[in-house]
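Exercise 7b. Backbone tokens:
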């Protein structure tokens, strides 16, 4: 099933031109990720309670004041380390993970700073192929198995290699939509920096 899923993602969302090997590249960052798929026209990836979502983060703010759009930098072994955009949160420098093949859960999330990993998650080997986020497999090939499940208006939860609950294939890309969904701020988001993490009160 994964092979079919991977093919459909690549065929649907990646222009033929990006298949050249020279397109594989590392981006030092900071960069953000946006989810694209059928009916999903570029939702910004955000963090909520250690898990990955995409869409209108304001819908989660009432229940989770620490929900925030994530900005990434590349860390050791091509790990992607997330910090909140424009928000003061109880998390910072959390490492993106996908489930390992052995894991029963298929949720994509974030490993807290200074936490050791475990056998259930993979936190290394992320790369871009063109502008699309990919995972470098053990054999060196690239895979994109991200899927999204609607969990509220304008928000999807991010999964890996799982369509069993009705998830749809998505691509996570390092570029914002040229024509943003209505809830996306018209102005480009600016990544939080260490010295100026931003003002959470402006998030709504
Ligand atoms: C917030 O939590 C309450 C109680 O669990 C729930 O009823 C409500 O739907 C949640 N709101 C959002 C926006 O998730
Ligand atoms: C995807 O899940 C299937 C089982 O549903 C597993 O056999 C396969 O190895 C997984 N592939 C990846 C890349 O995680
Ligand atoms: C592995 O780490 C993730 C992220 O912190 C956590 O959600 C999960 O429960 C951990 N699994 C085990 C078996 O420790
Ligand atoms: C985003 O969600 C918030 C909270 O539910 C809502 O007030 C706002 O209208 C939404 N934005 C758009 C453009 O839908
Ligand atoms: C991000 O910060 C800038 C500068 O303070 C502000 O103009 C903008 O509205 C903020 N965006 C969000 C989504 O909070």
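Sequence design result:
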């Amino acid at each position: 099933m994964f092979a079919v899923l991977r093919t459909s993602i690549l065929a649907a969302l990646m222009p033929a031109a990006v298949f050249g090997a020279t397109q594989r590249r590392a981006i030092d960052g900071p960069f953000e990720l946006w989810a694209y798929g059928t009916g999903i026209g570029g939702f910004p990836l955000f963090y909520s309670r250690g898990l990955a979502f995409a869409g209108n983060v304001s819908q989660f703010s009432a229940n989770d004041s620490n929900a925030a759009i994530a900005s990434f930098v590349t860390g050791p072994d091509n790990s992607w380390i997330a910090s909140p955009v424009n928000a003061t949160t109880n998390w910072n420098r959390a490492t993106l993970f996908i489930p390992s093949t052995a894991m029963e859960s298929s949720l994509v999330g974030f490993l807290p700073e200074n936490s050791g990993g475990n056998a259930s998650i993979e936190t290394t080997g992320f790369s871009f192929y063109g502008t699309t986020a990919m995972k470098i497999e053990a054999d060196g090939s690239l895979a994109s198995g991200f899927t999204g499940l609607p969990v509220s208006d304008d928000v999807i939860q991010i999964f890996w290699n799982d369509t069993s609950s009705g998830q749809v294939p998505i691509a996570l890309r390092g570029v914002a939509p040229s024509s943003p969904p209505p809830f996306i701020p018209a102005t480009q988001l600016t990544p939080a920096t260490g010295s100026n993490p931003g003002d959470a009160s402006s998030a709504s």
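Instructor comment: Residues 2-15+31-177 form one domain. DSSP finds two helices and 16 strands in the chain.
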